[in-house]
Amino acid sequence: MSAAAPVAASPTTTRRPVAVGVLAAISGSHLVNDMMQSLILALYPIFKGQFHLSFAQVGLITLTYQLTASLFQPLIGLRTDRRPAPYSLPMGMASTLCGLLLLAYAPNFATVLAAAMLVGIGSAIFHPESSRIARLASGGRHGLSQSIFQLGGNAGTAIGPLLAAAVIVPNGQRSVAWFGCAALLGIGLLCYVGRWYQQHLLAVAASPKPRAAAGEARLPSRTVAWVIAVLLVLIFSKYFYIAGLSSYYTFYLMQKFGVSVQSAQLHLFGFLLASAAGTLIGGPVGDRIGRKPVIWASILGVAPFALVLPYANLEWTTVLTLVIGFVLSSAFSAILVYAQELMPHRIGTVSGLFFGFAFGMGGLGAAVLGVLADHTSIVWVYKAISFLPLLGMVAALLPGPRALQR
To answer: In the record, which residues are listed under signal peptide (predicted)?
Structure first.
């Protein structure tokens, strides 16, 4: 047991070939996990009508599951850095399954919040360890592996509203339970991943301990803390903006353009699908040209489109949201790998911190913007959040590749 902790803390100690099967399984399970999360998002119009919710209450649902995930993820990452838990991932998916079933039969708003909390706990367990495993399976191509891992999650988020439009909207709330079959598939995939991870830990524990890589401690701790703070500002700008764009996109389209619920769900699917496609860009490009240019371009680059969006007609709204989703989604993989390279012995902690902060900002953004929407309008909210991508300018404060090699 004592030999296991250093193994988890040093994921870069052994260079291995890319574990394609493991990357596919962890990405597939990410698809299942985030698809089930996005079903909550897609159910908002149903819950709003059935339980007579205000926009603030709709935002509180998002806040509940994302804040739960936000608070627990860094703690779980810190814990698994010290003591690996290969089979914790299926347990996390089981929690999400329980939340999904409770969501299907929730008789009131309070039960919906309890279900959202179970989904948040499942995500809190899933993301730090699965991100670590994606890095372990990368064969040194860390950006690519994180992009593949994120692609699964974003694809699941995109599929959720489409499935909701096809299955849940015509068949009602209880049809959500049918998606429990996907959760069972996810549990099976994660059992396979957990077995590989356990074998990896045993193999590395039995091998001679390598010396620390030259130059591994690249920056002083104070500088690392400053850089992490800058990255968190970028995460704030991205996820607070995305919270407003995605949580209220269906309401925005219905209110401003008078489209139907199903049509709005299809537009949301298009936006989320573009986000999934853009995920594949940030990691591999960052492997080639460096993380900083990708971070800079992906957040600040969407600012012109975000500023124009609230004034566009329906056709241009569709086009602009596709561009915003594609470009902005490339940021997270680059940000996460950048942070992991700053703290290579704290992969779980870093992953938990960034996933947790992203979830927290998404939940907080949804709640705050829901209150603003109740007191103003959805259109006013879209105008207010359009300035957030301008915070991408703080990426100029990040050290470049030469500074990181010192």
So the answer is: none
CB 104 within 8 A of CB 175: yes
Q: Which amino acid is at 396?
A: A
Give burial (CB, 10 Å; 0-12/13-18/19+) of 199: exposed
CATH number at residue 155: 1.20.1250.20
User: What residue ranges in 338-389 does DSSP mark as E strands?
Assistant: none
Query: Under a CB-based contact definition with an 8 Å cutoff, are residues 44 and 58 in contact?
Result: yes
- How many domains is the chain built from? 1
Q: Is the separation of the CB atoms in 323 and 302 below 8 Å?
A: yes
Residue 147 CA to residue 159 CA, distance in Å, equals 18
Q: What six digits make up the tokens of 41?
A: 């998002």
Angle, in degrees to the nearest 10, between helices 261-289 and 291-300:
150
Q: In this predicted model, what pLDDT tens digit does every residue of 191-247 receive, in sequence order?
A: 999 999 988 888 877 766 555 444 444 668 888 889 999 999 999 999 899 888 888
Evaluate whether residue 4 is within a structural domain: no
Residue 290 in any domain: the answer is yes
Q: Give the angle 166-172-176 at the CA atoms, nearest 5°.
A: 75
Structure tokens at 89: 């991932």
| Cβ count within 10 A of residue 331 | 31
102: containing domain: 19-209+217-404
Nearest alpha carbon to residue 78 among 341, 363, 356: 356
0.85 exceeded by pTM: no
Residue reference for tokens 């064969």: 139
Q: What token pair was written down for 79? A: 């814990």
In a domain, 102, yes or no: yes
Q: Is residue 278 part of a domain?
A: yes
pLDDT in tens, 255-269: 999 998 878 878 988
What are 98's two structure tokens?
Answer: 């329980």
